[in-house]
Amino acid sequence: MEARIFGRTGKSWIVAAALVALISGCFGGGGGGKGPSSEYAESRGTDSAAKPFAYPMPDAPELTLMTEFADMGTPNRGAIDVEYERRTGIPIDHLGGVPMRDDKFQYLLASGNMPDIFLNNWLQYPGGPEKAIEQGYILPLNDVIDRYAPNFKRVLEENPEIDKMVKTDSGVYYAFPFIRSEAGRVYGGPIVRKDWLDDLGLSVPTTIDEWYEALKAFKEKKGATAPLTFRTLFLGERTAGFAGAFGVMANFYAEDGVVKYGYLEPGYRDYLETMSKWYREGLIDKDFAVLDLETVDKKLTTGTSGATIGWHAYVEKYNLASLANDSEARYVAAPYPTLLEGQIPKFGQLDNAYAGTSSAAIKATTKHLEAAARWLDYAYSEEGSMLNTFGIEGVTYTMENEEPKYTAFVEDNPDGLSGDQVMLQYAHQTNFPMIQRDSRLKWKFEETNRAPDVWGATEHEEYLLPPITPTAEEAGELSALMDAIDAYAKDAELRIILGVDPISAYDEMAEQLKRLGIERVLEIKQAAYRRYLSR
């Protein structure tokens, strides 16, 4: 999903503990201050964990916090922030966001100004999460969890599959994770103007040929100058996009126990050939390579475009805009396409329950370790889970027959906001370190409610690569190789789709990926995959 948080519009425990003791005793500094060995040792020297603890935490210090979402800036302080501070007793200074793969992330590390708590995808750290610990940026959490996070510890003990996902092969916990609910794992896919299809006598497209027919009709009979528009992130890295119809996606996946890279598979050539044809015929937005979300939204809601690939909330957003403008436009989710009618798509969009995103590491040199751990642990308590999911009792929900029921403030908001827009201010329903629950929130439009089921009808689960963690040595090599591979693959893909290079350039693309080391990358990921299965 889009970033939208903070308010507004099997190794044994004994082995793991021993490893953490070794890590915290041996790793030197590197985070712009004292390394974890000295600061961590100071925290272990207190007896605060032995005392009874209850929220709100007395005399708690203010903590600094950052996320991975650069487009948020510094978030406004919303109702959820106020309530969280009231309940935990711990004030938070939100500093905005820096993506792990942004150059600004490295500048932040070099500056020594890491926040106390950093929500990011630590699986993407160059060298892996254990390297971030070794270099003195973040803390190993095994002992921290034992001392200050009883709620999260209970979650790990009661849910071995979660426990397996959120630690390294060595048994080190490195972040308080965001775990998606089953219902929350599918949240994106194709979106199309249903009113245009109805006017043209066409059904919602399910095959590549039907999509071609619909897009041509949008251009020739509806005057759409960019029948299909989307941002480049939807080419296949986050979702399969239209590549899934060809049995591939632009990412790593596992098939019959073997890790594969979609760009190298034969179906990817066929996919690129189709996209190039559509672009050449004016069916794909000529500017898609440089579009931002605001521009895509404008094209979808002004008749410039009739289809896109986007997230769940976009269906609601576009239909709300139509309603506000007295327009007859109607937007619905379309299934991920196939080549033949009646086939089940091999790929679509599906996240692992733990995908690494929005997971909170604690700065190795924090002076407020207990407060940071207590603030994070609150989300895994029953009370914290209810607040994060349903908001504030009496404001956004009431209890009826021991079940939460949303109030009219949410379901029929006097300001015309959708339930989702209201809950953004009063809860952390997604992209927050917690165990996500089904919010049971009904959207204003039935088209939005149906979207996840439409997009979820794929075989993607069978091929999903779990959250593997290469060793520090492997991860360092992997990071160095993938920087060049990822940049080259995306550039070569765009050049073919845009017609700068002919489709025959795909063969050279595949050979160049091999020269850049993709086969070594697959070896590393295969080894990490085997280790993950043995945890």
- Gap between N and C termini, in Å? 29 Å
Q: How many DSSP H or I helices?
A: 21
Sheet with most strands: 4 strands, mixed
Cα Rg: 24 Å
Structural class: alpha+beta
What portion of residues belong to β-strands?
5-15%
Low-confidence stretches: 1-49
- How many individual β-strands? 11
Q: What sort of overall outline do the alpha carbons produce when their principal axes are compared?
A: globular
Strand order of the largest sheet: 2-1-3-9
Entry keywords:
single chain; 535 residues; alpha+beta; four-stranded mixed β-sheet; 21 helices; 42% helix; 9% strand; disordered N terminus
Protein model, in words:
The two termini are 29 Å apart. This protein is α+β, with helices and mostly antiparallel strands and 535 residues long. It has helices at residues 13-26, 36-44, 79-88, 103-111, 129-134, 142-148, 150-158, 160-165, 194-200, 208-221, 266-280, 293-301, 312-324, 369-378, 382-390, 408-411, 419-426, 446-455, 472-497, 505-515, 518-534; strands at residues 63-67, 92-97, 117-120, 188-193, 252-255, 258-261, 307-311, 331-333, 359-362, 397-400, 403-406. Strand 10 and strand 11 (403-406) form a beta hairpin.
Secondary-structure blueprint:
Layout: H1 13-26, H2 36-44, E1 63-67, H3 79-88, E2 92-97, H4 103-111, E3 117-120, H5 129-134, H6 142-148, H7 150-158, H8 160-165, E4 188-193, H9 194-200, H10 208-221, E5 252-255, E6 258-261, H11 266-280, H12 293-301, E7 307-311, H13 312-324, E8 331-333, E9 359-362, H14 369-378, H15 382-390, E10 397-400, E11 403-406, H16 408-411, H17 419-426, H18 446-455, H19 472-497, H20 505-515, H21 518-534
Helix pairs in contact: 1-2, 13-18, 19-20, 19-21
